[in-house]
Specification:
393 residues, alpha+beta, seven-stranded antiparallel beta sheet, three-stranded antiparallel beta sheet
Length: 393
Amino acid sequence: MPTKLRLLSLCFALCFALVAMGQDSLRISWLTCGPGQESYSLYGHTALRVQNLETGEDVVYNYGMFDFNAPHFAWRFALGQTDYFLGIQRFGDFVTNYAYHNRWVDEQELLLRQDEKQKLVSELYRLASLEDWTYRYNFLKDNCTTRALQSVEEALNGKIFFPPTKQRIQPTYRHILHEYAQASPWDYVGNDLLLGAEVDKPISVRQQCFSPIYAEHFLSRLNVKRTDGSLTPLAKKPVRLVMATEQPTPNTKTPLFILLGILALIVSLSVCEAKHRQWWRAIDSCLFLVQGVAGCIVAFLFFFSEHPAVGSNWHLLWLNPLSLLLLPALFYKRWVRAIQWYYVYYTIAFLALCGISLLGLQEIIIEIIVLASLLLVRAWTYLYTKVRFRHLE
């Protein structure tokens, strides 16, 4: 954590720790920030605002801070070993930044008792004062929203009562991610390539609160079950502090249309190839290369990364480094049998992928089915021409 930021955090936190004596002197609220345009900001953000009404101090505690200059940051990010810390900044600077990026900010005052406010502020101060305090970020189970909710819950003289979900179709992590990734259609497809079956299990109301906007939706509906058995509301209804202009909605079908266009081109070339009794290795070479590189990413995440849900990804059946390893075999006749067997395997893998989707083991979106079909067309074309025209070997 940068030294200047750490010192600023300590100064503000110390001020709050010293003056948090009266019930009316502190006001603590939950801030929800709207989605942005970048991939990392598509799902919104959460922070805690702490105001001292006597001194006028007004700061935001933010669990979403990380240090780009940390040793081996890029490598640790790929491994899912990114450590976040609790940052602090002036409220005015916080909302100005979100207004600049055209992202709305909502506020919900937390209805905490005096001792609970003091306990929460003291804990935030303690964490801010620890020089090396970090937590291992997990975008589904341990993020800026879940950390803020955990801090609030630990300060309560009681427990938050999470009602059972009443939705006719209980949502999953994937459904919620899809909802907000639609603003960036290619992120929508990319996320589904990397996330496995784990995100397709129904989740509870508490688990749904991993999403900043879902947490805001539930927060004013949640109650605190006190030690005496009474129920009290946790927060007020949200109030919009920063407005944002509505952005043009992108065409969510763009990736599908582009992939269908590529598929139509591959089919046309393959039909022409079969008519001329030829095998155009350049087409297979390009597909093998792209699939192999993407497969290396999927395989690396599957076997080595701590990112959530990437270790249960059935896409590994068809998206793996095997095609990259077999790329040289396209140009040597003595290895051509390996290509034949690989295409047989790929056909089986594609059918298995369709079966997995139909059985509900993992949700497979249509864009990925079309993407996987590109090499399937080449597999069938090769197997057909090899049977009909053996001289292609």
